[in-house]
Design brief:
The structure is a single chain. The chain is of the alpha+beta class. The protein has two domains: 62 residues, no CATH class; 116 residues, Mannose-Binding Protein A, subunit A (Mannose-Binding Protein A, Chain A), CATH 3.10.100.10. The chain is 30% helix and 21% strand. The protein contains six helices and seven strands; from the N terminus they run ααββαβαββββαα. The strands form two sheets. It has a four-stranded antiparallel sheet with strand order 1-2-7-3, covered by helices on one side. A three-stranded antiparallel sheet has the order 4-5-6. The protein starts with a helix and ends with a helix.
């Protein structure tokens, strides 16, 4: 039962996010053994993702290719908690950039945003009066510092830094490491050790 729960958690962000909320959040002990991401990437196991800001400014298309060359993709945002994490931890420290590329676009059908996987965008956090497809040429998602990192549709050919993501490094044998690394997992530990 314990192994099945962990596999479900590692494979289903929504379930793990609910469990982490119930058991005290997503903070981890400060240890190299607790780093589930490669050097230069940061992540939260609740989202099953590692994130990396690429500071070089490039078009949305080139950002898409850059993230692929790093073994990932332009970041997707699937929940309010993930959106808040990205805003406060990844984007807020940025002084010189007014926006970052993310993976959603409506290139094929205006106002019908999809992620690079072609899955529809279900969670959104648009800035006021956005998306607006201003001038009929704004089709790519960027997060906008001007509006407290809210979402904006923007011209894909503009040059911005971007946020990439890749799956977190984990396997089915990570149960003990997850429990050890998360300081508030005592109740979760009991659930996972059953069976």
């Amino acid at each position: 039962m314990g192994r099945l729960l962990l596999v479900l958690f590692l494979g289903n962000v929504a379930i793990l996010e609910q469990v982490l909320a119930q058991f005290g959040g997503g903070g981890f002990a400060d240890s190299d053994d607790c780093n589930f991401c490669e050097d230069g990437w940061t992540g939260v196991i609740a989202y099953g993702k590692c994130y990396k800001i690429t500071t070089e400014k490039m078009t949305w298309w080139n950002a898409l290719l850059e993230c692929k060359s790093l073994g990932g993709e332009l970041a997707t945002i699937l929940s309010n908690n993930e959106n808040d994490y990205i805003s406060s931890v990844l984007l807020a420290p940025s002084e010189e950039n007014f926006g970052f590329w993310f993976g959603a676009n409506d290139i094929d059908n205006a106002f019908n945003f999809v992620w690079p996987s072609e899955s529809p965008v279900s969670f959104t956090d648009w800035a006021p009066n956005q998306p607006d497809n201003h001038g009929g040429i704004e089709h790519c998602l960027m997060r906008w510092k001007t509006y407290d990192w809210k979402w904006n549709d923007y011209q894909c050919q503009k040059q911005l830094p971007s946020v990439c993501q890749k799956r977190i490094r984990s396997d089915r044998n990570d149960r003990e490491r997850i429990i050890r690394c998360h300081p508030k997992y005592s109740r979760l530990s009991g659930l996972l050790s059953r069976g």
